[in-house]
Fold:
Amino acid sequence: MNIDGACAHIEELRALKAPHQRQCEECVKIGAQWVHLRTCQSCGATLCCDSSPNRHASKHARAAGHPVVASAEHGERWLYCFPDDVFAEY
Structure:
């Protein structure tokens, strides 16, 4: 993708992955609540943000080595790279 100011991880993306369902896959398994959702741009998993109690998206990024998420919230069009701490709007 050609996004001004983006890091190499974001630049490597060829197409954006959208959420299959608007729910945190891991929170559903344990009956937990979430605040906002993020979709992993490596595997497509939709998980909860760091404002949520379980912070599944950042845990997944660290454990799986998947660097970039996209907001899965309606009306939001941004990406975030965990290792580079970079936001990019699209």
